[in-house]
């Protein structure tokens, strides 16, 4: 049985750090009620290793374009990147960091090829609701970024994830009090 | 002397980033070739003179480790320096790549200065026996 000690804070830190180091995009914690456009790009990346599963990264299309520009240091990247390329590359980097944190440098893990699709925000966020761990970040340009982790084989030997729910990142739906803030 | 370079990565934007970093590093380039996976890379290597390869690890069809393994079995390809550029942080995989003769490993995300220093170092040592 593989036991992970992993919290939304850990996931948020990796996502935020990757965006900052790879693309000079700075973020802060968001909440489930953070505004989002009607449709999003959903990027999915599978992983294998001591545990298997997938990672999701949800971003507005406009942010994907900005991300591409940031990665390349140019404004017009239309000939150098297709839609979803940038978010896929960022998720690839996030995946590498997470696998190293979860399983250590001696584990042999593989990342799949990122797959990107456009879908309605409500549907995309419903996917995240079923995740083992999910976080919401907001960029300086007010783009919402959602990241989620899914592990396979829930019916197999139990894999416990210490979620360490952080008030700044989650609040109980329907409590009428809105998101907690630090 | 200018070098023919092969960039191997399934991500179009990453190939563009590497291409940009090559330019920023001031590497003396001849022609730059691109491939989206190891299998395509072998086709390029069979058809064109390549002086250095920059390759990702996680790619469909044939990944970076498999590419380097195939290159190591070929008398003509074994001497071509390979630099891995990857999000992979596995020390076990890194050790395997080193056994296969990979010259350097750049972890993503990387700074242009890091890319420049590694690339220049590899090119300067190209004439050195392994």
Describe this structure in words.
The complex is a heterodimer of chains A (182) and B (130). With 182 residues, chain A is an alpha+beta fold. Chain A has helices spanning 8-23, 61-72, 85-103, 121-129, and strands spanning 27-29, 39-48, 53-59, 110-111, 115-120, 133-139, 144-151. In chain A, strands 1, 2, 3, 4, 5, 6 and 7 form a 7-stranded antiparallel sheet that branches. Chain A is globular. Chain B has 130 residues and is α/β, with parallel strands linked by helices. Chain B has 5 helices and 5 strands, in the order βαβαβαβαβα. The radius of gyration of chain B is 13 Å and the shape is globular.
The span between the termini of chain A is 35 Å
The coarse silhouette of chain A is globular
Structural class of chain B: alpha/beta
Poorly predicted spans of chain A: 155-182
- Quickly count the helices of chain A: 4
Count the strands of chain B?
5
Beta-strand level of the residues of chain B, as a percent range? Answer: 15-25%
The overall pLDDT of chain B, averaged over residues, is 92
Helix content of chain B: 40-55%
Order of helices and strands of chain B: EHEHEHEHEH
Write out key terms for the chains shown.
heterodimer; A: 182 residues; alpha+beta; 7-stranded antiparallel sheet; 7 strands; 31% helix; 24% strand; globular; disordered C terminus; B: 130 residues; alpha/beta; 5-stranded parallel sheet; 5 helices; 5 strands
What is the element layout, followed by pairings?
The complex is a heterodimer of chains A (182) and B (130).
Chain A lengths: L7 H16 L3 E3 L9 E10 L4 E7 L1 H12 L12 H19 L6 E2 L3 E6 H9 L3 E7 L4 E8 L31
Antiparallel strand pairs in A: 1-6, 2-3, 2-4, 2-5, 3-7, 6-7
Helix pairs in contact in A: 1-3
Chain B lengths: L2 E6 L3 H13 L4 E7 L2 H10 L4 E4 L8 H9 L9 E5 L4 H9 L4 E4 L4 H13 L6
Parallel strand pairs in B: 1-2, 1-3, 3-4, 4-5
């Amino acid at each position: 049985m593989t036991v992970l000690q992993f919290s939304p804070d850990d996931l948020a830190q990796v996502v935020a750090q990757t965006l900052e180091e790879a693309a000079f995009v700075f973020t802060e914690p968001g909440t489930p009620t953070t505004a989002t456009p009607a449709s999003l790009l959903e990027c999915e990346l599978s992983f294998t290793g001591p545990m298997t599963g997938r990672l999701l990264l949800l971003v507005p299309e406009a942010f994907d374009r900005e991300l591409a520009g940031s990665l390349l240091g140019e404004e017009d990247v239309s000939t150098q990147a297709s839609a979803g390329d940038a978010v896929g590359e960022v998720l690839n980097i996030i995946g590498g960091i997470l696998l190293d944190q979860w399983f250590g440098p001696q584990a042999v893990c593989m990342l799949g090829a990122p797959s990107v699709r456009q879908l309605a925000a409500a549907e995309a966020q419903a996917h995240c609701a079923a995740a083992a761990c999910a976080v919401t970040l907001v960029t300086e340009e007010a783009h919402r970024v959602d990241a989620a982790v899914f592990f396979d084989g829930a019916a197999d030997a139990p894999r416990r994830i210490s979620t360490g729910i952080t008030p700044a990142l989650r609040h109980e739906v329907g409590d009428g009090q809105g998101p907690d803030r630090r | 002397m200018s070098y023919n370079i092969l960039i191997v990565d399934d991500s179009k934007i990453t190939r563009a980033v590497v291409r940009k970093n090559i330019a920023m590093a001031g590497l003396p380039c001849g022609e730059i070739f691109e491939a989206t996976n190891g299998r395509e890379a072998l086709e390029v290597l069979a058809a064109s003179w390549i002086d250095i390869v920059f390759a990702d690890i996680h790619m469909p069809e044939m990944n970076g480790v498999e590419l380097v393994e195939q290159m190591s079995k070929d008398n003509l390809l074994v001497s071509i320096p390979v630099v891995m550029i990857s999000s992979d942080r596995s020390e076990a995989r890194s050790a395997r790549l080193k056994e296969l003769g990979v010259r350097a490993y750049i972890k993503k995300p990387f700074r242009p200065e890091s890319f420049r220093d590694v690339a220049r170092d590899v090119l300067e040592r190209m004439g050195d026996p392994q």
